[in-house]
Design a protein that fits this description.
The chain has helices spanning about 5-20, 40-55, 80-95, 105-115, 130-135, 145-155, 155-160, 195-205, 220-230, 235-240, 250-260, 275-285, 300-305, 340-350, 350-360, 370, 375-380, 380-390, 405-420, 425-440; strands spanning about 70-75, 95-100, 125, 140, 165, 165-170, 170-175, 180-185, 210-215, 235, 240-245, 290-295, 310, 325-335, 365, 395. By secondary structure, it is α+β, with helices and mostly antiparallel strands.
Length: about 450
């Protein structure tokens, strides 16, 4: 396929804009209480000794430990791709790798217990908003041996996202946000607003036969946040760094939650029933016209032969929709028995070649600069919609207090959806819970 040079340059520019939009990610935690956290002495010692192990000259080849074997955690839907990476790593280094299923957003919480107990994964993969909490708990080894490679090869924004208090911990893999996927055979032109979707649903919906105009993972606060943020809500003030300033129950957030509540009229199901797999099944069988999803869904939809496009999220009261955006990456467990092998795997899995393969197979947008500017990425018309939405996205805060937001936020939105709770009351309760939990973060 002949690549349009102007289009390629335009897409590279858009990816650069994505990096700029995420530039605030890494600095959010610089003034948080990580130094005052109180991990046990056993939590601090593995990191110190393992860092010493990796302090060799950059000209020296990092040597894995004798008899090393690794466990890597990965989400169910991405496990086949990770198995491929693991096999290639084993073929190169002779180190066995076992891939276990743990959802990426849940890995740091699971590592809290499994790490000190010595049963956690050696390498974890998680969104950057969990970094502050993980570092404060002493769970991760710094990315020290491969730091120069990581900083040189990846976008500045993705590197900052995995930097906490001037220390790099992660090995960036991808950057992302979500947008509006539309089935062109059911709705040729994407709607611009939720009002348009409600009107479309009046003639399209057939709930008895599970036919819906719009669906998203209703119970997932990652998606629900866009309803609160678009009219003026926010998580924390000062670009996500001020945990004392919570804007999830301000006037704008309440207004957005009211719009969210109204959408149940066109999606009459319990919030927990709108899962990733349910949406995928309906979208691929032409029973779902519009799906709020991310680049990770692109590859499977292409394989299924769906005639679809991607557009920015619907507006609310004419305002561009503000989605969450983030960076995902690898990190090495501070309690790993094989820290060098873990470093080798995290570096190997996040190379340009593997990031391009991730894009081709899973639709992940690369954090690697060369991969992001590769024509394979920049010539894909579906990526345009993701990048357009990314321009209005907001980086998830990475301070430790962000870990206290997900549970109360999700519960509040579920109460609004499932129980018909007054949006103001539900959001006030969520903020109160977040404030109480934040008191424990030192």
């Amino acid at each position: 396929m002949k690549v349009n040079t102007k289009k390629t340059l335009s897409m590279i520019s858009a990816l650069s804009l994505m990096a700029a939009a995420l530039a605030a990610c890494g600095g959010n935690g610089s003034n948080s209480g990580g130094d005052n956290a109180s991990p046990s002495a056993s939590a601090a010692s593995p990191s110190a000794s393992a860092s010493a192990t990796a302090s060799a000259s950059a000209d020296d080849e990092l040597k894995p430990e004798d008899g090393a074997s690794l466990i890597v955690w990965e989400s169910k839907e991405f496990r086949p791709r990770m198995e491929t990476i693991a096999k290639a790593f084993t073929d190169k280094y002779g180190i066995p790798v076992k891939v276990e299923e743990v959802n990426e957003p849940d890995q740091i919480n699971k590592l809290m217990n499994d790490g000190p107990a010595g049963v956690g994964a050696d390498v974890v993969i998680f969104p950057h908003d969990n970094l502050g909490k993980a570092v404060a708990a002493g769970l991760l080894l710094p990315n020290d041996y491969f730091a120069d490679d990581t900083k040189t090869e990846n976008s500045e924004a993705s590197v900052k996202a995995f930097t906490f208090k001037d220390e790099l911990y992660g090995y960036p893999r991808s950057v992302e946000t979500y947008a509006l996927f539309y089935n062109k055979d059911l709705i040729p032109n994407p709607p611009k607003s939720y009002d348009e979707i409600i009107e479309f649903a009046k003639t399209f919906n057939d709930t008895k036969n599970q036919k819906y105009a719009l669906m998203w993972e209703i119970s997932n606060f990652y998606y629900a946040y866009s309803f609160l943020a678009t009219p003026g809500g926010y998580v924390f003030g000062q670009n996500g760094s001020d945990a004392a300033d919570i804007g999830l129950n301000n006037e704008g957030a309440v207004k957005g939650a009211t719009v969210y509540k109204q959408l149940k009229s066109i999606l009459p199901m319990k919030s927990g029933d709108a899962t990733f797999d349910v949406k995928k099944g309906l979208f691929t069988s032409n029973k779902l016209a519009l799906d709020i999803n991310g680049p990770w869904a692109i590859a499977d939809l292409k394989k299924a032969g769906v005639n679809f496009g991607i557009a920015p999220l619907p507006t609310i009261d004419g305002k561009p929709n503000v989605s969450f955006s983030g960076v995902k990456g690898y990190a090495v467990n501070a309690f790993s028995k094989y820290p060098n092998a873990g470093r080798l795997f995290a570096h190997f899995a996040s190379t340009k070649e593997n990031q391009l393969a991730d894009f081709k197979e899973l639709g992940f947008l690369p954090s690697n600069n060369e991969a992001a500017s590769d024509s394979t990425v920049t010539s894909d018309p579906l990526i345009v919609g993701i990048l357009e939405q990314f321009k209005n996205s907001y980086p998830m805060p990475a301070i430790p207090e962000m870990g206290n937001v997900w549970g109360p936020g999700q519960a509040a939105m579920a109460d609004i959806w499932d129980k018909g709770t007054d949006p103001k009351a539900a959001l006030d309760n969520a903020v109160k819970q977040i404030q109480e939990a934040n008191k424990a973060v030192k």
